[in-house]
C-alpha cells in the first residue's frame, strides 16, 4: 500500500515551492543592490550634465 499523505499539506508545500521559484526569478530579473542603483544614478547624472553642457540655445534672432 502507498504512503498516506495529507493533501492540504502537500498543496501548501507545492504553493510555497512555486512562490519561492517565482521570487528567485524576480530577484534575477529586477534585483539590484543599493550600490548598483547609486552607481547607475551617478552615471546618469554625469551623462545628463555632459548633454546639458553641450546644448545650444537658439537666440531670438534666429527664430522666425
TrEMBL record:
InterPro entries: DUF4169. This is Uncharacterized protein. Residues 1-64 are annotated as: Disordered. Residues 33-45, 54-64 have a biased composition (Basic and acidic residues). It holds the Pfam family DUF4169. It comes from Sphingobium lactosutens DS20. The lineage of its organism: Bacteria, Pseudomonadati, Pseudomonadota, Alphaproteobacteria, Sphingomonadales.
Amino acid at each position: 500500500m502507498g504512503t498516506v499523505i495529507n493533501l492540504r499539506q502537500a498543496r501548501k508545500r507545492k504553493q510555497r515551492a512555486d512562490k519561492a521559484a517565482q521570487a528567485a526569478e524576480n530577484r534575477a530579473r529586477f534585483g539590484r543592490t543599493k550600490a548598483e542603483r547609486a552607481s547607475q544614478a551617478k552615471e546618469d547624472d554625469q551623462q545628463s550634465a555632459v548633454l546639458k553642457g553641450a546644448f545650444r540655445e537658439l537666440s531670438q534672432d534666429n527664430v522666425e
